[in-house]
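Hello again, I could really use a second opinion on something today. I've been staring at a protein lately and its backbone has me curious. You're getting the sequence in one-letter code plus the fold written as tokens. I'd be grateful if you could look everything over and explain what you see. No rush at all, and the record is pasted right below:
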Amino acid sequence: MNRDGESILVIEDEADLREGLKHNLELDGYRVETARNGTEGLAKASRDRHALLLLDLMLPELSGLEVLRRLRERGDRTPVIILSARGQDHEKVSGLELGADDYVTKPFGLAELLARIRAVLRRTSPEAGVSQDVFLFPNLKVDFRRFTVERDGAEHQLSRYEAEILRMLIARRGEVVTRSDLLSKVWGYVHLPTTRTVDNHVARLRKKIENDPERPLHLVTVHGIGYRFESRPL
């Protein structure tokens, strides 16, 4: 069961698929809004709050990737599941790098899609993760309520994935966390199209928490294995 009639926005230009998704999601108890192109989808996603977006990649006017990019640049953290066609592996990877939470490849089964939706909503719920929301370290403050880090008085916004990576590393500080463990716990996959996804997010995260990203003191690479967070809380 879903969580009390949550709202899903379906951004899909194929009319039959769009209406079919709306019908079946409503049968499963969700409230559903639809959009026929990227421009309309971006406007509705910006105007109304939704629990999740189903976002086609190949859209008229604005592509799905452009819609996602603009939402994340505005700080919108709404969970997104990409709907992609076969042969769009590069676009899927780009979507994950931009902050999509999952993807399904067309044609897909309804049962699979509903399972993916529930998994993403569980993973991104406010109750997920460790209970402490604010951590203080020498020269560094991490606030998971606001998705921010403050380093030497300068505040930086975290993406959802950056926050989840950092939360996991802080929770296990001093321990080595493998790339495969991060892929499994943060993205919900055993394997992604490329493990560079983790490394790219860590590189961006280092620019926000390290004085010298090339010589990190907090987010340390354990070569061939993964990463370790080094710092004692105040």
Remarks:
- The chain has two domains: 7-123, 134-229.
- The first strand starts at residue 7 and ends at 11.
- The longest helix spans residues 110-123.
- The chain has a mean pLDDT of 85.
